[in-house]
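@channel anyone free to eyeball this complex?
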Amino acid sequence: MKKVLMPLAMVATLALVAYVGVEFLKLQFIFGVVIPYTAAVLFVAGFLFRIADWLIRPVPFRIPTTAGQEKSLDWIRRNPIESPHRAWEAAARVLSEVLLFRSLFRNIRAELRKDASLAYASNKWLWLGGLAFHWSLLVIVLRHARFFFAMVPGFADFLDHADSFFDVTLPAFYISDAIALGAITFLVARRFFDAKVRMISLPTDYFPLFLIGGIVLIGVLMRYVVRLNVMPVKDLMLQLMNFGFDPPGEIGTLFYVHLFLISVLLAYFPLSKLMHMGGIFLSPTRNLCNNSREKRHVNPWNSDIKFRTYSEYEDDFREKMKKAGLPVEKQ
Amino acid sequence: MAKYAPNLSELKKELDEKPSILKGNYSDKEWWDLPVEFRDGNWCFPAKPEVIEELGFPNPRKWAATDEDWKLPDGWQKIISEGLRSRLKKYRSLKLFLDTCVRCGACADKCHFFLGTGDPKNMPVLRAELLRSVYRNDFPLAEKILKGFSGSRKLTAEVIKEWHMYFNQCTECRRCSLFCPFGIDTAEITIVARELLNLIGVNNNWILAPVANCNRTGNHLGIEPHTFVQNIESMVDDIEELTGIAVEPTFNRKGAEVLFITPSGDVFGDPGVYTMMGYLLLFHHIGLDYTISTYASEGGNFGFFTSNDMMKKLNAKMYHEARRLGVKWLLGGECGHMWRVVHQYMDTMNGPADFLEVPVSPVTGTKFRNAAATKMVHIAEFTADLIHNGKLKLDPKRNDHLRTTFHDSCNIARGMGMFEEPRYILRNVCNTFHEMPENTIREQTFCCGSGSGLNAEEYMDIRMRGGFPRANAVRTVREKHKVDSLVTICAIDRASLTPLMRYWNPGVGVYGLHELVGNALVMDGEKKRTEDLRENPMAGFEDGEDDED
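replying in thread with the prediction:
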């Protein structure tokens, strides 16, 4: 329980900090300008650092996990995506992971049944939940572009329309909000109720889920319940985009809580497992071609080792070899 | 076997009744609070001091996993910590795989050791966390700021014991990496963890003794050149007795076209020797100009399970010998990890092999462009090409006494991607081939449970559990299709699936693919065949009877 409650309490505390800071201490400038700038800098610098920190380390061997037939004889049908032979095939493999979660789609559940027998069943819930979670968040983030540009970009407009397809509330209800909240609930619930996942979960697994959940929840509250005036929000965002330092206008406190939690997320991002966002592109078991017998792969640190040569071997066994009729180099 | 293997009915009862996390029982204990208990059958004997000394490895001593004090060297924490630091600089995979795991749990029930033991620390994610938790404590990763929050812990002697237990309950089979959304490969973690353990003298005799042997005599079993030749010559006699054909292998012969290298288990161990007899018949059948080396007489490479340097050192002999003998290219026998090393490591480590030629089959003229750099062809690719071009005279009826299924070796499946060639061959040399359930074959194949140097007798308890998912899949086809022969293309499989079948599925035999090829080959000038290479009677070829149709 502690590993669930601790991160939950942390997120609640963070929200409270922003609320108290703005509502009572009137620190609008700190929470509206200073902290977001700081968080953005930490995010960009930290993200780049982490990626660079991976990139400087060599990939000594070609170690793709082959999940399909390699290229071999001409008449044997190969699998270009699961066992890529050319660079673009490997790129397609990585993209299938990034965009469609290919490997998770493969997921199966093993069950130990009576009479010690194992059965396997397709289990795509994690794939579905993960995909729903990531894609809805992406849509939500892109949709927010309307706050960052004076002229709303075309894609943001388009997403807005598509997302509010079910025009049942006022303002129009976003499907992505519902999907995101549903997916987060599912991902938290499975960490808690699936015995295996419960055991492997750490506070650092719950924390980002609660944090993102909190951000989405407050966003939903602002849109449908509290009904914030968005114009000063847009003014503030446009200002931040132009690196301005004017104090923000009259905005409801809830917005500052939303913004503060996002700032925390941004700053926390490079320090955490959330870096899987960059890591997925670099995974050597996915982004390398399975052609290491055809094309030489160079290891920059290939260590210089001394092996036992044939002549040393023959020196040790010459008499025995001669007796057995084996040819020898020296008599 | 009896001493170290669990009692079958008790193990079945345990699997049926004992609550485990696999069946959804949450113990309410955190994994780092679960004790590590060594008992008979769940630990491999440590390397003997003389083996350690021969290899020049650190900390030779007498000890056992069940000892309270493992006599670790002074400053061992520093050795591990610095060892990890230097390996993090050498392998992007290691750093990336330690950093990016989100603990989604997709890998949890994919490991054969987890399915067979129900031990939570056998979930691949937790196996990696054993190292990850220490890494987070020691390295300036920012999660370090909030200890306890990020699940980090100090490196203690207890952690070393835990590493020794669980990094030896991983066969580096990569099944988890198939299901991981980030491709995290626990084999990469295990490889490094075992390297680190070797630095402080925590090791396995069943790995290091073959390594020392291989270095000295050229093969894992420590067979000296004259004995090596004698062994093969006795096979030649057996072949002549069975078929009337005198095959003529040559040894260390300069100027041969092809150097043939196979795991030494094929030369020495039952049932590997029957596979070797199959090779010899095949090469005779097509008149291949080949030679076998007593110096490079090992296809396998237990250095791979020891350290990167040791893998390179043992593997170097292949090219060294090919150059000395002046052959044109290399042909490799049936083996799992050998092919992971040859396919993914050899050219990088010991190449370029520019003194060799791009392999061309002398019989069919096929150019093996897929081996253009490494210049080593897998026997299954070679034979499939022969069959496809109609160069072999085969009578699949000669395997009618066997009802077969095929076990994909983990390394061939997930470290090379060869699925079709062996199946093509099998369909051409026998009439009954039934696949095991789809989630247990091809890229999803289960390990035999004894790979990566864990094939030790004293490890039988863990091996029988680790092999349980494979055995269970065989049971399915045994019940459904009366399958009685498990065909494989791996020497460790041949050695380890045999006791596994005896334990879980008595009556199922284990065969090498080329043993079946050898059975089916119709040789020029052969005498009437009534027995297979094991001297078991073939169905429909009994003495005095004519063929049925």
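from a first look: Chain B touches chain A through 126 residues (CB under 8 Å).
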